[in-house]
Design brief:
Layout: H1 6-26, H2 31-46, H3 51-68, H4 71-87, H5 91-98, H6 109-124, H7 128-144, H8 151-164, H9 168-184, H10 188-202, H11 210-226, H12 230-246, H13 250-262, H14 271-287, H15 291-304, H16 310-322, H17 325-348, H18 353-360, H19 362-393, H20 395-444, H21 449-464, H22 468-489, E1 493-495, H23 496-514, E2 518-524, E3 533-535, H24 540-551, E4 558-567, E5 572-579, H25 583-594, H26 601-614, E6 622-627, E7 637-644, H27 651-660
Parallel strand pairs: 2-4
Antiparallel strand pairs: 1-3, 4-5, 5-7, 6-7
Length: 661
């Protein structure tokens, strides 16, 4: 909570209290009414500073409300208490008290306070869709009653929910709405808070745009400085220091981080804030190439937050700059594992993208709806005038004309409703298609990090044994494979020939890992059209599974065969991945021994991708997995994929069609 300086607080409290008491005296209110005004002012004063004082004065207000049977005062007193509890992060108690309040569903300030409080509580509980509904209800009550109450605060809360969904466009739109309204109301505290949030949004919360992040961070510092708001300034520099360092202003960012830490005890900064300010100094020293100082401050930051990603990331950058490649690789492996886990947890907490975008455009839809309602009303009035005119002419024609007009109106209304439903359905289908496309892109981009590290370790071994030609050869192949994977992960389809070339590169590097014990072959029948377009990176995950789960644990000669056929009778491409490994059952037993709670992420991802690819296909892709010889000690595994040819076109023809479109 951003606070004003002491002189401004005392001045505002003094004039507000005098104004309330004067108003009560002028209107001839009783001493009890003046007491209510005094208690409400005290609650407002201590709302963000002392929860015990808030409870004390609220209880006194409730006694007065019950004696006078004033339900409005009772609800207002409890809502003030709830707002204070939210500021002190006591959400369960706030929700419990809110459930006891009965607020009439009409446009007034009490209803706005109620819906805003409920939305904040739901937002903190990560029930984001429901929170968004209550924030929009608060806006609705303002609109219905012609109120101008807490508008910037509501906009800021809506933006915070959209931010959690990584909805950059609508999130920043509502933050700008809130900033504009806060300026109109000269709400300095909220202006600083919004600028700080925008600084965070552009510094990685939703996207990375360092120029925008620095811009809003400096705006927050400027507003706080002009208002002589020390707490707001301390909060602003504690956030703006990081993007300033990332912008290359290392000395300035270092000074701001140290200055912010000087306010830490005075304003009771959280442990997380102290961690980031300490880590900032590590990154600033790394930018200044003072590596010992960088590691020293990052070690101090790591003691505040041992599970952080920043420590291994900075160690990787420092060791890489110092030429310590082994240490850099170890730090990078730790960072990779932690960042992958963090990203998965973050994705699990996202709210429905469809719901968020629908709600974010709700006001524009309401405006269109109001316009349509006005047109319908005008049409109805016109029809009623014709009906009255018909009454004057003749009763018979009135009856016939009335029936025809009624049927025509019903038909037009039904047609309008159908068109609206069709447009809404089209919007939903477009959003679902975007969602499925993003899911496919995410699955295509999956690549086992262990393969990367194993390949690099093998190349490093060649370097250390002075086999420079082999090291250069395999390093070139590794670079080619990375380039191919990056290219393939950005497109939906590739030519079969390109998929086979990528597999060949991948298998050459895997053979390096197994030395001479892995025998791989790719067999393509003569009638196969290698220019046919197939889903990118379709076969590689199955080959990787065969090596990782079937061949890795096998003793002796390891054999892997990939067969590509074209079955004219079925009008399908057939892919077979055959290994002589330990088989599915034995692989599952080994995984269970290592981790009793093991669940195969790769298997689930492959099934999910096949389901998503089949969603828009007339004829589905068929996957079959069998043992080669179930009675053998090493039964091996055979995976077969069947792709219908009628839905495949040559990649060159497909790209030509896309260019023409």
């Amino acid at each position: 909570m951003i606070k004003l300086n002491d002189e401004r607080i005392l001045s505002m409290k003094k004039y507000a209290l005098v104004g309330i008491l004067t108003l009560f005296s002028f209107l001839g209110f009783s001493q009890s009414s003046a007491e209510v005004g005094r208690l409400l002012e005290l609650v407002e004063t201590y709302k963000s500073e002392n929860i015990d004082s808030v409870n004390k004065f609220t209880n006194q207000l409730l006694i007065i409300a019950k004696e006078s049977k004033d339900k409005g005062l009772e609800a207002k007193s409890q809502l003030n208490r709830i707002e204070s509890l939210i500021l002190f992060n006591r959400f369960d108690l706030a929700d419990s008290i809110l459930s006891t309040i009965a607020v009439e569903d009409k446009a007034n300030r009490l209803s706005v306070d109620y819906y805003l409080a409920k939305g904040k509580i739901l937002n903190k509980k990560n029930e984001n869709d429901e929170a968004l509904e209550f924030f929009y209800k608060a806006l609705d009550k303002n609109s219905e009653g012609g109120l101008d109450y807490l508008i910037p605060e509501i906009y800021a809360e809506i933006a915070s929910v959209l931010r959690e969904n990584n909805d950059l466009e609508n999130c920043t739109k509502y933050y700008r709405y809130a900033l504009e309204e806060a300026r109109k109301k000269e709400n300095i505290d909220l202006q600083i808070k919004i600028c700080v949030q925008m600084c965070k949004v552009y510094n990685g919360w939703v996207t990375v745009n360092i120029d925008s992040s620095v811009y809003y961070g400096e705006m927050a510092m400027q507003i706080a400085t002009q208002a002589n708001d020390e707490y707001g300034y301390a909060n602003a520099i504690s956030i703006a220091a990081a993007p300033i360092i990332r912008d290359g202003q290392y000395r300035r960012g270092l000074d701001l981080s140290r200055e912010a830490l000087g306010f830490a005890d005075k304003y009771n900064f959280s442990l997380q804030t102290k961690y980031y300010l300490t880590a900032n100094q590590g990154f600033a020293f790394e930018g200044l190439k003072l590596y010992d100082s960088a590691l020293y401050f990052m070690k101090q930051a790591g003691e505040l937050r041992p599970s952080s990603l920043d420590y291994p990331r900075l160690k990787y950058r420092v060791f890489k700059a110092q030429g310590k490649h082994k240490e850099a690789l170890e730090a990078f492996e730790i960072y990779w594992a932690k960042s992958d886990s963090t990203l998965r947890n973050r994705n699990q907490n996202r709210l429905s993208s469809l719901q968020a975008r629908y709600e974010a455009n709700l006001k524009e839809q309401e405006l269109a709806s109001l316009t349509q309602t006005t047109e319908l009303q005008e049409l109805q009035l016109s029809q009623q005038r014709y009906l009255l005119f018909g009454l004057v002419v003749v009763v018979v024609f009135l009856a016939i004309g009335g029936v025809m007009i009624y049927r025509q109106r019903k038909l037009r209304q039904a047609q309008a409703i159908t068109q609206l439903e069709l447009k809404e359905t089209q919007k939903r289908l477009e959003l679902e298609q975007q969602y499925r496309a993003s899911e496919l892109k995410a699955i295509r981009s999956q690549m086992n990090p262990h393969f990367v590290f194993n390949a690099l370790n093998s190349i490093q071994e060649y370097i250390m044994t002075n086999e420079k030609k082999l090291a250069g050869k395999y390093l070139g192949k590794f670079a080619d494979l990375m380039r191919v994977y990056l290219q393939h992960s950005q497109v939906k389809t590739v030519a079969l020939r390109e998929e086979i070339e990528a597999l060949s590169l991948y298998l050459e590097l895997e053979k390096l890992r197994f030395e001479e014990t892995l025998d791989c072959s790719i067999q393509i029948e003569e009638n196969v059209d290698t220019e046919l377009s197939i889903p990118s990176l379709l076969i590689q995950p199955y080959v990787e599974n065969a090596i990782k789960h079937g061949l890795l644990h096998k003793q002796g000669k390891r054999e892997l065969t990939i067969v590509v056929k074209q079955d004219d009778s079925k009008q399908a491409l057939l892919f077979e991945v055959i290994d002589n490994g330990i088989g599915r059952k034995r692989s599952q037993e080994i995984n269970q021994m290592r981790d009793p709670d093991h669940k195969s992420f790769a298997t689930h991802a492959l099934k999910s991708r096949i389901e998503l690819l089949n969603h828009d296909r007339l004829n589905p892709i068929i996957e079959k997995v069998n043992d080669v010889d179930a009675n053998s000690e090493n039964p091996g595994t055979k995976v077969m994929l069947e792709l219908p040819i009628e839905e495949l076109v040559p990649e060159a023809q497909k790209r030509h069609s896309e260019i023409e479109a």
